[in-house]
Amino acid sequence: MSEFWLISAPGDQENLQALERMNTVTSKSNLSYNTKFSIPDFKVGTLDSLVGLSDELGKLDTFAESLIKKMAQSVVDVMEDAKGKVPENLLASGVDLTSFVTHFEWDMAKYPAKQPLVSVVDTLAKQLAQIETDLKSRTAAYNTLKTNLENLEKKSMGNLFTRTLSDIVSKEDFVLGSEYLITLLVIVPKPSYAQWQKTYESLSDMVVPRSTKLIAEDNEGGLFTVTLFRKVIEDFKTKAKENKFTVREFYYDEKEIKREREEMSRLLSDKKQQYGPLLRWLKVNFSEAFVAWIHLKALRVFVESVLRYGLPVNFQAVLLQPHKKSSTKRLREVLNSVFRHLDQVAAASILDASVEIPGLQLSNQDYFPYVYFHIDLSLLD
Q1: CB–CB of 214/224 below 8 Å?
Q2: CA dist., res. 345 & res. 358, Å (int)
Q3: Which residue of 67, 70, 151, 367 has the lowest C-beta tally within 10 Å?
Q4: Is the CB of residue 368 less than 8 Å from the CB of residue 63?
Q5: What digits encode the pLDDT tens for the residues 228-254?
Q6: DSSP of 166-217
Q7: Tens of pLDDT along 328-342?
Q8: How far, in Å, CA of 17 to CA of 213, rounded?
Q9: What is the pTM of this model?
């Protein structure tokens, strides 16, 4: 499973033994794979400042998770036909996401632990905000280009009634430069081909004999040319409509057709040129955002553990990876049982919803005797 539970318990002898019991039970029952999660010793500051940081870190955690989801989706959108290779492009510090989480080490160079916690959080917040700003501008430019290209491509994919005809017709299909004659394009249903051939010359006066030619077909019908005198155009259109033949409004303009083809070529070229740099930027900055997110998780564990267990700082963080979805309920029961002593009243309420806890605003499903955070990588699949 691509799901992790990040918990912490006090680091005294009694709770270290409880952690060992948890490891033994979860291992024997094949419930989860557990590893220690190393968190450095930060400058605690005041408890009041930690309460403020707790709220800020919660918001920043949500923002970071949302950002990496957007970036992962952007990688999917950019890679289009190579979506099978997306996972190998969603890495953190050069390794797959699961490996990064299970072997997490705090980056002292990027986020010095000796700095005040407020400064560390500020650094992370500014980094993530800059990535989001750059993501918006870079993907907006690429998506505009992609949309323009898709709109042009759609024009060549419709039926004969709606699609562009610039890639179908040629100069030789038309009488051009004549003061009196004009070539029209007529869509004829397939069952009516024979009727068209018999009647098109008599639909109006002044239709040039033997001037029709089939130049394109789709599943529903064919596109025919017909040449006639300009002054009978409206009469011919009316008679054609009465016979269920549709005159397509199209007049050959070599300059316009050339411009459309050049626009398609330019957009294809621009998209190809932007693809590589954008994908590289997404890979690098997805990694940066994901790494920052897991650092935020570590900070939240530290802050909440100090607030929950008090000073001096003494707790042990553990990362659990449930083996399968069906075992998570049993895993939760094991944890609640092992750590019930941390909060007898709250733990009891988990088993008995009728127990009221004065001042506790969270629902029973939200509260645990131990510090708990969830990391769900399946959201990035």
Answers
A1: yes
A2: 10
A3: 151
A4: no
A5: 999 999 999 999 999 999 999 988 888
A6: TTT--GGGS--S-SSEEEEEEEEEGGGHHHHHHHGGGSSTTBPTT--EEEEE
A7: 899 999 998 999 888
A8: 90
A9: 0.77
